[in-house]
Specification:
The chain is built from eleven helices and 20 strands. By secondary structure, it is an alpha/beta fold. It folds into three domains: about 80 residues, Immunoglobulin-like, CATH 2.60.40; about 100 residues; about 190 residues, Rossmann fold, CATH 3.40.50. Strands 1, 2, 3, 6, 9, 10, 11 and 12 form an eight-stranded mixed beta sheet that branches. A six-stranded parallel beta sheet has the order 17-14-13-18-19-20, with helices on both faces. A four-stranded antiparallel beta sheet has the order 5-4-7-8, with no helix packed on it. Strand 10, helix 4 and strand 11 form a beta-alpha-beta unit. Helix 3 runs parallel beside helix 6. It starts with 14 loop residues before the first helix and ends in a 32-residue tail after the last helix.
Length: about 475
């Protein structure tokens, strides 16, 4: 273990500035000076590439209402919320939340389709009444009622076409939903993601993202829907409950942390001991922005006798005026290869080091110990790992700040301090020494090597990153 204090440190902000958010005019000016150039390559493209057409996050395409009732002209289903179609006539429709014992909707209906505003899972009851003659004070007559019951019926869960980490985080709750309701469950997602999930979930039918199975009883859209205070598509704000539990609340299952079931090959791909790392992410604020971070960490791993494999999809990522490349000294295992190859390689590593990104969720799914380096997110956002590397001496966890709405179209966004000297300080202040000590803990927990005695290490004085090096004065002749 290298001595503490050898890495030049960023200059620590004074305490009275730690809680200060730039004024609105300053923040606006910073944003105007850092607008994303849409003509520049985006993440995952070669530098000379063109920015492709951005796919919509999710499309909502419920099928026509097809569930027949015992009343002529009355149809119902639970695709994109509770829906009931009534013919021309004098009717009244009610939607009831059976768990909350609460009437959510009660109104007259005449040749219309009535839909609930809530499109996530609710234990609905649908009621249709033939309205009585008001002048004769006749009571309304219940002519049709249906309690939600998906047992043996076709249900679709639709996931985003992108965001691998989100899909891996949420998918375990699809299986919990299937088991709870005994339904014939279809999951629509990117075939790249299906390829690594099918073996672990044999009772689920996997279809492409835009496929709509026949005779659907219900369908739900599993995703993050901005603005985050939208309560029609999602019951809670994911920044409060965490990324994974967000799906549990949306599908009405127990919000217990669940690891996705991935199936690595039993054959070890490399003979030598190795560690996998992933240094790329989907926004600059998620990167490890300490210039010495990966360099010091890779050097330390190599001193311990490890091969260090970089398993990112992109060797170099360029978005606008920001570029991130493969850490120096690592072996280049990057590329847009089948995800099962990533699963097989990571699963047999001694451990994995990554950021708040999809590959960290994938690594967690393989069961390998994960060292997670982050500052942008609060501890509840990702899965639990005892090897989370984060500290709270500077601005941190702005992802969870309810006062902020992250600009996802701005790759370089730093929600509080964009364009200031405190930009990305949440990870700039994470030192390689911090990560190296976490590596020591992992190795000790795995029984590879005992934990070093750090008391024997003499820390050297720490210099600020902007402090000029000392120069010797010329000696007088």
């Amino acid at each position: 273990m290298s001595d503490l204090g050898q890495t030049p440190q960023p200059k620590m902000p004074v305490n009275d500035r730690n809680a200060t958010v730039p004024d609105q005019e300053g923040a606006k000016a910073a944003q105007e000076n850092t607008k994303v150039d849409l003509s520049q390559p985006q993440q995952g493209q070669a530098v000379q590439g063109q920015r492709p057409t951005v796919k919509p996050y999710m499309t909502f395409n419920p099928p026509p209402i097809s569930q027949k009732s015992n009343i002529k002209g009355v149809f119902y289903d639970f695709n994109k919320g509770a829906r009931v179609a009534v013919p021309k006539g004098n009717y009244r429709v009610r939607f009831v939340d059976r768990d909350a014992c609460l009437v959510l909707y009660d109104a007259k209906a005449d040749g219309v389709i009535c839909t609930s505003t809530k499109m996530y899972y609710v234990n609905f009851r649908i009621e249709v009444y033939q309205r009585g003659d008001e002048q004769k004070k006749e009571p309304d007559k219940l002519i049709f009622a249906h309690n939600y019951d998906a047992k043996g019926k076709n249900v679709l869960l639709k996931f985003p076409d992108t965001a691998m980490g989100d899909v891996l985080a949420w998918f375990p709750y699809a299986e919990e939903f299937r088991k709870k309701h005994g339904c014939n469950l279809y999951c629509a997602l990117n075939p790249k993601f299906s390829a690594i999930l099918k073996a672990g979930y044999p009772e689920i039918h996997f279809v492409d993202t835009e496929t709509v199975p026949q005779d659907l009883y219900a369908s739900y859209y599993v995703g993050l829907f901005a603005p985050w205070d939208n309560r029609d598509l999602q019951p809670v704000d994911w920044r409060i409950v965490g990324l994974q539990r967000h799906a549990a609340y949306l599908l009405g299952v127990d919000p217990i942390e669940r690891r996705p079931k991935l199936t690595p090959s039993p054959e070890r791909p490399l003979k030598e001991p190795y560690v996998c790392i992933a240094s790329q992410s989907t926004a600059q604020c998620k990167y490890w922005n300490n210039a010495y971070g990966w360099l010091g960490t890779v050097e330390y791993l190599q001193k311990l006798g490890y091969r260090v494999l970089c398993v990112d999809r992109d060797r170099i990522s360029v978005v606008g005026n920001q570029g991130n490349n493969i850490p120096y000294g690592t072996e280049d295992f990057t590329g847009d290869c089948p995800l099962q190859e990533r699963v097989d390689l990571i699963a047999h590593a001694d451990f994995f080091i990554g950021l708040s990104s999809g590959l960290s969720w994938l690594a967690w799914g393989t069961g390998v110990p994960v060292i997670l380096i982050t500052g942008y997110t609060a501890p509840n956002i990702e899965f639990y790992t005892p090897y989370r590397v984060q500290h709270f001496h500077v601005c941190n966890s702005c992802c969870n700040d309810m006062r902020l709405e992250h600009k996802y179209g701005d790759f370089g966004s730093c929600p509080k301090f964009r364009g200031t000297d405190r930009e990305y300080e949440c990870t700039r202040f994470i030192t390689p020494e911090h990560v190296c000590r976490t590596i020591d803990r992992v190795r000790a927990d795995l029984g590879i090597a005992p934990l070093p005695d750090y008391s024997k290490l003499d820390a050297q004085p720490v210099k600020a990153a902007d402090e000029k090096p000392e120069t010797k004065k010329d000696e007088k002749k």
